[in-house]
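Propose amino acids for all 839 sites.
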């Protein structure tokens, strides 16, 4: 890096402020200034990380002006605000996204180049905040981007986990988990707001007391109190001045008078309590789609929900709004049932702390909440044992009993005494021990309940929430998921974005429906050629990443066939690997076979306690080992498992895919969002009629989608008539050979025990019906291979996929939430001098 030359620059732009200006010279000066004054380094001694930090602070300065103005305007106008409650926000790296949304990517790139730095390298230095597991957490992040871009006043509320989702390494083919120490080198994007700390109570007992008016009230005498400290991150919209807030809570021990008295002279005891309190927000639970009845998890849920609701009450007080208007000021969305305790907590705050009567408090509560369901899988439905619940949240249990009693009275009124129905609807499960059913609490306490794709929302009404649908059908609706084109096209696939913009202008970045206009170019040879070239460059890039991280060399001209997502039986990564084995066997049997060369890429984390999922990773790695080393196979087939799938590592993947694997058992994947990211970037989908695949296929056209497999109805019917997986195995020589090889140790150096649990499961129960879907899948893959050979046809299909994905922007999804559920309107922000913002 050269010595800074600060004099004589920015001629004609002297008015540019060092903290807000976006000219290249101003950016360079501000960057070097931050390097010195924030990182305390001269360029000569600075590390890449120092440079990243200096750039992050330079960008943050440019956000702050918008952030402060946004807060001021929301406060002035008392704007109706969305509060998105989520235990997970899988934000991914902030720097690149903020550069895009500020519209200064090119200037910053030039500034860095002129300082002899590589922007890409600096971007790679950012530790991503991995505060989520998968689809649900990433959806929350896409929604925050769209909410800000649509200028909707929003607060995202969640937990500031000290350790996010574990880092995955692969050792001898097995997943090994490493602690994610994302805060180790500091987080330039957050600002602590200790002045807005709140207290959260746990345990203890309740007692009655008379208030000043002589009325009986309940008082909760807790066993312990924990402090919640908010940490705020600005969320800037795309090319608007709106910067909303993601407010994440960290648990700390309170330094109260009582606490001191208790521990007088007991320093170790005091430190011990501090450690215990801070454990609360230490680590994200790494399970997706399975619930675990752990006390600490319930503590986390209640902690952040109570912090969030108390924070909203503080804002109302500050804006001098009466509590009766709570539901007018805030639309609170429950991202699955993880924050569902909010229903009881808002009731408690209104009843006990603000002495409101039950009826108005309940009306406010129901009008406040909306509930989004993300899964039908029974093992994911949260229920807490009464024993745990009452010991941690005794007052909330009383309130839930009262809600339940009143609700079941209404049920009796509508349906008469139908004890079966009442048992099914009750907030308390008494079938096998006693539990609080969080989905039921969410349904009763909300005015809207939505699924995340059309099929999923229909199935909710027909199965999991049937009884609730019959009781209040008017609450049910659908909002199909979407993803943000800013991160998932503009940032991840800049070359494609530039090509599209050069043809149709850049309106599509804000209005993805406009991307339809590229359809007219679908058969244009020049456009096709550029399209193909960009895909190839993206594949070359991934090939070099694969070589770097796994040592496997792949051919960028082969068909890139990609499945990246959490590892789960219902997602059927093992069906994909059965196809790999089948291709392998076909080549081995016919060494001169002229097949379409393929590279199968897998990535994804398994929940640490999910043995079968970890075994699936081991199987993928074992098959890869055999296939990649076999000289008979050559470049015709490669199988690669890319370790540590996360937002950052995924960004180059979607743009490099030819084929997107969306092969869940029909009826099991609520929506999927990876399916959308792939198709937007011109990958063709091979998929089942599940989740949003159905809507993607309708949008892109059946002729541009590779469909196979059982439908949801088929799956149900087959179960009813008796499913016998081994019959498929016996009847299909290719399938039998593949399974026998796994069982016989062909891929495990002769070890027959290793994969036995997996093989037994497939032949005996096969809960996700791989055996039934095997041959249709193989046949469909054959179609894919054939089609890929017709380059023009494939290119045309690829272009049409991108062109027709407009519906799957999270902007469309958020508009639907705003209209159908939240009844909230945009509040544009003008940049003026900041006044009295309080967030
Ligand atoms: C995390 C923790 C628990 Cl206890 C339960 C579930 C999860 C979780 O991560 N679920 C999840 O990611 N669900 C997914 O939500 C996506 C967004 O709606 C859907 O697209 C996807 O189909 C669904 O599986």
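Proposal:
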């Amino acid at each position: 890096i050269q010595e800074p030359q600060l004099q004589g620059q920015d001629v004609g732009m002297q008015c540019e402020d060092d903290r807000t200006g976006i000219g290249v010279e101003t950016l360079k000066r501000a960057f070097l200034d931050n390097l010195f004054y924030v990182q305390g380094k001269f360029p000569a001694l600075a590390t890449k990380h120092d440079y990243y930090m200096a750039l992050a602070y330079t960008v943050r300065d440019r956000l702050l002006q918008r952030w402060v103005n946004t807060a001021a305007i929301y406060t002035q106008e008392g704007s109706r605000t969305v509060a998105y409650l989520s235990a997970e926000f899988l934000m991914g790296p902030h720097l690149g996204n903020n550069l895009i949304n500020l519209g200064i990517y090119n200037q910053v790139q030039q500034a860095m180049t002129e300082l002899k730095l590589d922007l890409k390298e600096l971007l790679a230095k950012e530790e991503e905040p991995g505060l989520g597991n998968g689809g649900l957490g990433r959806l929350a992040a896409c929604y925050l981007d769209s909410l800000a871009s649509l200028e909707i006043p929003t607060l995202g509320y969640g937990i500031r986990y000290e350790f996010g989702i574990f880092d995955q390494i692969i050792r001898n083919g097995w997943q090994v988990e490493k602690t994610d120490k994302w805060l180790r080198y500091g987080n330039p994007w957050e600002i602590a707001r200790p002045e807005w700390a709140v207290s959260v109570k746990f345990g203890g007992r309740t007692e009655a007391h008379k208030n000043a008016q002589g009325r009986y009230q309940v008082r909760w005498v807790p066993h312990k109190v924990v402090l919640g400290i908010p940490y705020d991150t600005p969320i800037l919209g795309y090319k608007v001045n709106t910067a909303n807030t993601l407010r994440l809570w960290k648990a700390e021990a309170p330094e109260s008078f009582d606490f001191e008295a208790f521990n007088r002279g007991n320093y170790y005891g005091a430190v011990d309590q501090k450690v215990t309190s801070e454990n609360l927000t230490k680590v994200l639970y790494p399970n997706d789609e399975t619930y675990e009845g752990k006390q600490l998890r319930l503590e986390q849920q209640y902690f952040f929900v109570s912090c969030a609701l108390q924070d909203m009450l503080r804002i109302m007080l500050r804006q001098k709004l009466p509590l009766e208007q709570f539901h007018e000021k805030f639309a609170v969305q429950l991202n699955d049932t993880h924050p569902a305790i909010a229903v009881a907590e808002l009731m408690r705050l209104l009843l006990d702390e603000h002495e409101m009567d039950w009826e108005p408090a309940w009306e406010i509560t129901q009008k406040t909440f909306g509930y989004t369901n993300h899964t039908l899988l029974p093992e994911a439905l949260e229920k807490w044992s009464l024993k745990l619940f009452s010991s941690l949240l005794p007052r909330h249990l009383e309130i839930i009993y009262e809600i339940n009693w009143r609700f079941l009275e209404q049920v009796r009124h509508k349906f008469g005494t139908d004890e079966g129905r009442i048992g099914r609807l009750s907030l308390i499960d008494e079938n096998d021990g006693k539990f609080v059913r969080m989905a039921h609490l969410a349904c009763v306490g909300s005015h809207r309940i939505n699924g995340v794709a059309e099929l999923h929302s229909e199935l909710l009404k027909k199965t999991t929430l049937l009884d609730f649908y019959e009781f209040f059908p008017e609450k049910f609706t659908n909002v199909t998921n979407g993803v943000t084109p800013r991160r998932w096209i503009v940032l991840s696939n800049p070359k494609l974005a530039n090509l599209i913009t050069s043809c149709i202008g850049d309106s599509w970045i804000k209005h993805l429906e406009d991307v339809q206009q590229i359809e007219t170019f679908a058969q244009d040879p020049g456009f096709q050629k550029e399209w193909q070239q960009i895909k190839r460059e993206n594949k070359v890039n991934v090939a070099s990443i694969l070589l770097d991280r796994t040592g496997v060399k792949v051919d960028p001209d082969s068909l890139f066939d990609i499945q990246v997502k959490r590892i789960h039986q219902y997602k059927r990564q093992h069906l994909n690997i059965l196809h790999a084995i089948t291709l392998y066997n076909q080549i081995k049997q016919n060494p001169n076979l002229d097949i379409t060369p393929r590279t199968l890429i897998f990535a994804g984390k398994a929940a640490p306690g999910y043995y079968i999922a970890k075994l699936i990773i081991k199987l993928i790695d074992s098959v890869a080992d055999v296939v990649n080393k076999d000289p008979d196979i050559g470049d015709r087939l490669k199988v690669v498992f890319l370790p540590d799938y996360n937002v950052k590592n995924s960004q180059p993947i979607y743009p490099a895919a030819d084929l997107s694997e969306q092969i869940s058992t029909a009826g099991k994947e609520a929506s999927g969002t990876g399916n959308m990211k792939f198709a937007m970037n011109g990958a063709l989908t091979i998929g089942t009629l599940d989740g949003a695949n159905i809507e993607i296929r309708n949008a892109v056209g059946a002729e541009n989608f590779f469909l196979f497999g059982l439908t949801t109805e088929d799956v149900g019917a087959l179960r009813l008539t008796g499913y016998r997986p081994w019959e498929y195995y016996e009847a299909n020589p290719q399938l039998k050979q593949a399974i026998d090889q796994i069982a016989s140790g062909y891929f495990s150096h002769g070890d027959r025990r290793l994969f036995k649990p997996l093989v037994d499961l497939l032949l005996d129960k096969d809960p996700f019906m791989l055996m039934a879907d095997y041959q249709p899948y193989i046949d469909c893959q054959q179609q894919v291979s054939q089609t890929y050979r017709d380059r023009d046809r494939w290119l045309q299909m690829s272009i049409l996929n991108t062109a027709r994905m407009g519906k799957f922007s999270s902007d469309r999804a958020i508009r639907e939430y705003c209209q159908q559920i939240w009844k909230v309107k945009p509040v544009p922000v003008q940049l003026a001098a900041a006044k009295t913002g309080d967030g």
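The chain has two domains: 81-93+128-478, 502-809. The pocket of F55 is lined by residues 133-136, 139, 287-289, 291, 374-375, 380, 452, 481, 669-673, 691 (CB under 6 Å).
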